[in-house]
Amino acid sequence: AEHYAKRQWQAACDDFSRLLAIAPKHKRANQARFHLGESLVQLRRYDEAQKQFEELLRLAPQDRYARHAQFRAGEAAYFAGRLAEARQWLEAFRAEHPDDALNAYVLAHLGRIELDDRNPAAAEKFLVDAIDQLPQNRLAPQCRLSLAEAREALGRIKEARHGYDELVESGSGLADYALLR
Hints:
Elements: H1 2-5, H2 9-22, H3 29-42, H4 46-59, H5 66-79, H6 83-96, H7 103-116, H8 120-133, H9 140-153, H10 157-170, H11 175-180
């Protein structure tokens, strides 16, 4: 846990893995499994991370980490590019936890999935809802860019351009890409 707190992801993975190998039924095994998954996400080892989250859900579906593990399993699939699988996880999370604050991220990811699947109308709906729920969040600029792309794909060029212009003016890290669009 000390390595995890210090953001020493590989060392955290090593120690959590060692604990789980030695004492898989330890009273903190579920916590270790969750934090192992989180550490693996930080290392961009999404497939391995997802397996840890799924294992936690299989072994302890009522654990205090289960709700967050369900979300992170979907997010890990999303980051790994397995969009159909991510959609299933994220939609299940949203259905089971409709009032959870993590749904802002769920909506953002589902919007991007719909955009990648060439369904800009569905993407727009998800992204508008996501932006409403996380207006000042670090994910908001990406949502705004995706929303502008969805509107461009729908042929609503004025609205798309307005979205791109706002990103350019904001000085966001996405400003150059928005200016290109």
